[in-house]
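Annotated sample (chain length 302).
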Amino acid sequence: MPSDSVALASHPASPFLNQTLTLWTERRRQIRLEVEHQHDHMAVALSELHDRWNDMRGLRRERWDAFENDDRLSEDRWMERLGRIEEWRGTLMQLQNRFGGIEGIVSGIQWFDRAQDVGKRMAAHLGDRIVPYENTHTQLHEQLEQWLSALTAKEIDLKDVKQKAEDRTEPLLVSRARKQPELDFLAENLAKDADLGLQLHRLRRTVALSLGRLYRVSHLLERHARVNEGLFEIRRKQITEDLKNSQNQYFGLREKVLADALLYESCRRKLRWLKEAVNALRCIEDVYRAPESAWKKFVNRF
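Output written by the structure step:
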């Protein structure tokens, strides 16, 4: 003990304090026993709760497993149903394709029935129209031959004149009265050139339009026959055979018109040569002035 510390005098314990301490000690022991009892009770309750939790967890696991199993079974059933639906869809598509093919065949048969009637009427119409076209071609051909003969005769005459001019040492001069018939012939044949050219153009266009209609009909027949060649090819040949005679007639007329076109071009070449030859003729009045008459001289004095 340090030297400056004070020694406390010991006193006897107080009976009240001893009694109080004894009560507290007893109360503490009772509280501890109660706490231990409650702890044991809570431990039992927790154990029961844990067991119930495990039971519920196991039950939920079983339900989840059952749900997953049912889900897998349901998915398998849905996949099976979807597979059947796809099979039904494929069968439906096949039926639709078959129906479309049957509908196309029926439509094609109806179309060829109408086409056969239209083809016969068209063949009759073209057969009636070919007669005036042939007459027009015959008249045009006769006019071209006559025109070619007239141009050839005039070409021979002007060639004789041109030969005489070449044989002369001096330039060949003609009077206006001698040149005027040549100018009139040239003007008349230029007008004939325009008229015959217009007739030939109209005839060629008419024949081309008729052949174009026949070509479009043939193209339509081939396109519709490709739907079912085994069924429609015979119908196509029948309609084509009905139009074959008219087609051959128009082909023959086209060849004749082309031949006339060549004849027309030959006539135009001769006409161009005649035009150059007539324009090459020189008039005396253009080179030498005509002498004045006596009365003009008398008038000119004043």
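Annotation: Residues 173 and 302 are 35 Å apart (CA to CA).
Annotation: Strands lie at 173-174, 282-283.
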